[in-house]
Design brief:
It is built from 1 helix and 21 strands. The protein is an all-beta fold. It has 2 domains: about 10-85, Sandwich (Immunoglobulin-like), CATH 2.60.40.3210; about 105-310, Zona pellucida, ZP-C domain (Immunoglobulin-like, Sandwich). The chain is elongated and about 90 Å long.
């Protein structure tokens, strides 16, 4: 209430917020403070975009009212207020201090196949050293498999799901990729997610861009993906990487194909392969699924998990 720093306290009834003239919501008598508790868009505040910032502009108005005295000790005043937030971020009063969780998750099957997911920098050449993103960012994800002492195989991503904990069956969950390689998130109107074709397709790697998102009320998500290595010439509805092209309203494969291998993405039903389980000799609890697609098409399927943290804009 000592608005002017003169030790003469103003009256709360003489203060209003914004063009709408919102009154104070409470008065804290212990420290002589007046509280205005309103939303950013309330009381006639004005929003502008300035560079990379969202700027909310409002003001507090002091209008002293005559109450029978002939003298006054305060003048009227208008105090401008700006609240600034980075445009690529979450406006939040709850600061988040993300704890680093190692991103890479790798498991091996008897020393022959080793699957992994990595967060990559924009150049796709180096691994990103942080798993913290702002909404609006593109998350570059590279799946890979190491094929030591193994016949030539080609990597595919069967399924990816986002959850709030490292359990791909947890709820709520959001299917990012499903139906043996259909990038379902690319269908969303506000998404720029897509499979990315490298200048030279490396059989042991598969890349895709994921438009950053989070669950409402949460800033940490886990992304679990089922990775598969199949014989090189096995390109069909079970071994594919398909993106929805919104401009043309069609599903297209990452690489050209003589047949419409993405047809089942439109139908939302792709035939599943026969599966049989093998226990891993690596880390405890790791289980691989292996299925026979044909006499010569052997796959190994494994779920690996990524951890993504979304951080609010810094306070200014």
């Amino acid at each position: 209430m000592d608005l002017f720093g003169t030790r003469h306290l103003v009256k709360a009834a003489d203060l209003t917020l914004g063009a709408a003239g919102c009154p104070p919501t409470s008065i804290l008598t212990d420290d002589s403070t007046v509280l205005f508790d309103y939303g950013l868009h309330d009381c006639g505040s004005r929003l502008q975009m300035v560079g990379d910032l969202l700027v909310y502009t409002t003001h507090v108005t002091h209008t002293p009212k005559a109450r029978g005295a002939i003298i006054v000790r305060t003048n009227g005043a208008v105090v401008p207020i700006q609240c600034r937030y980075f445009r690529k971020g979450n406006a939040s009063s709850n600061p988040i201090k993300p704890t680093w969780i190692p991103f890479r998750s790798t498991k091996s099957r008897e020393g022959h196949l080793s699957f992994s997911l990595r967060l990559m920098n924009d150049d796709w050449l180096t691994e990103r050293n942080s798993s913290t993103y702002y909404l609006g960012d593109l998350i570059h994800i590279e799946a890979s498999v190491s094929m030591i002492n193994y016949m030539p195989l080609k990597l595919y991503v069967d399924r990816c799901v986002a959850t709030l904990r490292p359990d791909n069956d947890a709820t709520p969950r959001y299917n990012i990729i499903d139906y043996n390689g259909c990038l379902l998130d690319s269908v969303a109107e506000d998404s720029f997610s897509t499979f990315v074709l490298a200048p030279e397709r490396e059989l042991d790697k598969l890349r895709f861009d994921l438009d950053a998102f989070r669950f409402e009320g949460h800033s940490l998500i886990f992304i679990s993906c089922s990775l598969k290595a199949a014989t090189v010439n096995r390109s069909d509805s079970l071994n594919k990487a398909c993106t929805f092209q919104k401009m043309r309203s069609i599903w297209t494969p990452l690489e050209e194909s003589d047949v419409d291998i993405c047809a089942c993405c439109r139908l939302g039903n792709c035939a599943a392969s026969r599966e049989v389980r093998f226990a891993s000799r690596g880390k405890k609890g790791a289980v691989l699924k292996a299925g026979i697609l044909s006499e010569v098409a052997v796959i190994a399927l494994l779920t690996v998990t990524a951890v993504i943290v979304f951080c609010p804009a810094s306070k200014l």
